[in-house]
Structure formats: structure tokens, C-alpha cells
Amino acid sequence: MSLTTVDEDLRDRGLARMLTLARTRFEALGGPRGQVTVASLTADEARAIRAIWKRSARRRPMPGQDFRCSLRDLDASLVENLGVTLEDALIRLSGELQLRPAERSEAAARSAEFWEQALAHPVCERGTAAREWVERLRQTGALGARPFESERGETLVPALDVALQLPREPAIERSTLASELLGDPHGLDDGSPIGDRLTGLLTALDGGSDARLTAGERRALLGRFGVLCDPASATVLTLGLHPVGESPLEQAMRALAGSHVVLTLGQLSRSRPRFERGLLVRLCENPAALLRAEDRLGAAAEPLICTGGWPGSAVCALLDALREADARFEHHGDFDWDGIAILRWLSERYGAQPWRFDRDALVASRAPLPALRPPRHRNPNTDPLVRALHEQGVAVAEETVLDELVRDLGPAVDAVGA
């Protein structure tokens, strides 16, 4: 060739297609192995390849024909005619090679190191639940094939670090904890990467399943580990609860006997009220039921708690305190799909039983009935109430049966309906 330098020889446009194919094969196989085929050579390509091809080669490149060559022969030809190996030539032309086998080997080693370090974390050494949770992340590929360099992988160690500081006593507000441990007051918010990872870990430590948590379940979970979410804005509406202790909160609740009491998550977390053992506590879904009981029964009303729909963190904190005193729970809600799902959740977590909330109560209702929308939650058809809702195709709001509920809450039966 008439060109004056190796780099100029390598940049001959007649070699470009062959060397591009060679680079792809070289990277895929990790070295000068395998073959490439340059289809339908142009005259320039046939000329350039003949100029650098080794003298011992039997087959010569010809215009219009395919040219198949092994990378080993191409490597030998470059060494013989230009004094450079194929690897050196490819690096000169397009920079460092990305050798796939070497990359895979390195990635496997780094991944193994990543999981080894996670499993050696003090939280994992403290108990089997955390270790099994980390193992599930690895087995399911939840952090991706290369967790050591993924955004999902970056959430694991911080979540483990936060869990190591829990439970907190006294309880701490979530944004304060996040600022203290992560330098970001929003670092543990719902939906944040580390916050979601921490929720999964705490669920495992709490003995729960991997099922998706509602907002109330998530905040109640954090509360059990001494982390408060919106402690002033998360509230629970109550009536007829008479705690037995002498804390300021307990004294205030007794002083307000006969009136509804709104308790915040912060109050319940700082000073959990104590109750006499074995109380029967009824639960309603809507505030109207509790306010009707307050209006009709006053101080004679038996214990009643309003869940406000799906139980939030404050509701769960109060139910947890009552459960410690072996309280029994009965629940009434709207006769619709959400109402059934809420009862099922309360039954699973707190052993709640239906309170005027069954097929017979639904069938006996004479209230105006709005059409029932399709279910948003999975409800087994073996439940008689579910079958009745399907059959009737209508919903019954709790507000339409308030008098029946109030009759169960106290001795002042004559006052009801007055």
C-alpha cells in the first residue's frame, strides 16, 4: 500500500466494513476467535483486503464475491503486513474494546460481592427474617441483573442502615429520621426509592407478606417500629372509650366522656392509652354513625371507633393498644365491595367480627339503593354477603341504617328514634 503510516493504512475505507464486523465478533467472543463474512465486496474492498492479507492465504478477495475470514487469519495478516495485532488495530481505530466474556465475568464477581456485603450487614446478622428478605431480592432479580450499578441496587444498603436504627424509643417523626440518617427529610417518604425498600424490609421483620400495603397499613407498620408519619394530621374518631391509666391523654379522654374524641397518631404514639381487659369495641366506617350515637346516647354509649374508610395509621395505633388489653372487635361498614374488603382486612389483622354486616342485614334493608359498581378488590364468591351483593347489584350506605346501629350501643333504647 502507498500510505505512509499504520493508522492511515487501517483507515483505508476498503477495510472499514471488515474491521467493523471484526470488532463486533472480537468483543462478543472476548478475543480473535470466530469468523466474519463481508458480503459482495466492492472493488475498493477487494483491493484493500488483498493489500494487507497474509501471503500464505489460499483464497483471495474478489470484487462482487463474499469474503469469509477467520479473526485468527485477520490477526496474522495484520501482524505480517502492518506490524500490529487485530486487537491493537481495533483499539487504534475505535478505542477500547468492550470484551463481553470479561465483562460478564467481572459483573458476576461484582454482583456476588454486592450480595455478600448485603448479607453481612448487621441487620441480616441480627435475625433470619432480614437475611431471607435479602435472599428473596437476589433470587427474584428485584434489583436487576447488575445491582451494584443500578438505582434499585443503591436503595438496599441505606434501607438496611435505617432498619438497624429501629425500633426507635421514643418514637421519631419520619422526616426527622430521614434527615438524621439520609440527609434528606423526604428520603423515606411514601413512593421514595429508599422508603419503599425500607417498607419491604420492615414488613419482613414484622412477619408480614410481600403483598402491597395500603397507606394505612404502611403507616401502621412504621409506627410499630417507632417511626411516625404525619403524627398530627393522622387521626382517629372515638366515642365511649374510658382508659384506666393516669396519663394526661387518658385523663382527657375520661373527662370528655359522652363526647366524641379525636386522637392523633402523635398522641397515641407518645402515650399509648391502657384499657380494662376484654372490652367489646365496635367499629364503624363512617363518622355519621358515631355522631348519631353521641347525639342519642351521650355518656351511655358503649365503645365505638370510626375507621373513616380504610383504617389509617392512627386507627391502627388505637386498635393495637386495645388488642393488648384483649379487646374484641365488631365492625359495620358500607354494603359495597370496599366495605367487604375493609372487614376482611380487620378480621385478618384484629380478629374483627361482622356487626349487623351480613347477608340477612343487607336483604332486610329498605333504603334507597344505588347501583353497585364493579369490584375493585378480590372478594371470594364463597362469602354469602358477596353473593348477595352480586345478586342484588346494589349498595347500601352505612348512613341508612344508623338507628339500628345505635340500638346496639347502649341502654337508652327509648331515646333512639325520638
Q: What does it look like?
A:
By secondary structure, the protein is an alpha/beta fold. The protein folds into three domains: 6-98, no CATH class; 102-228, no CATH class; 235-415, Dna Topoisomerase Vi A Subunit, Chain: A, domain 2 (3-Layer(aba) Sandwich). Helix content is 48%, strand content 8%. It has 20 helices and ten strands. The strands form three sheets. The protein has a six-stranded mixed beta sheet with strand order 6-5-8-7-9-10, with helices on both faces. Strands 1-2 form a two-stranded antiparallel ribbon. α17 links the parallel β9 and β10 (353-354). α8 crosses α11 and α12 packs across α16. It is elongated. 34% of the residues are buried.
How much helicity do the residues have? 40-55%
Q: What is the approximate shape?
A: elongated
Give the domain tally.
3
CATH topology of the largest domain: Dna Topoisomerase Vi A Subunit, Chain: A, domain 2
Strand content: 5-15%
Radius of gyration computed on alpha carbons: 36 Å
Mean pLDDT: 87
Tell me how many strands there are: 10
* CATH class term of the largest domain: Alpha Beta
Taken in chain order, the helices and strands follow as HHEHEHHHHHHEHHHEEHEHEHEHEHEHHH
Poorly predicted sequence stretches spanning 5 or more consecutive residues: 412-418
Query: Could you tell me how far the N terminus lies from the C terminus, measured between alpha carbons in angstroms?
Result: 112 Å
CATH architecture of the largest domain: 3-Layer(aba) Sandwich
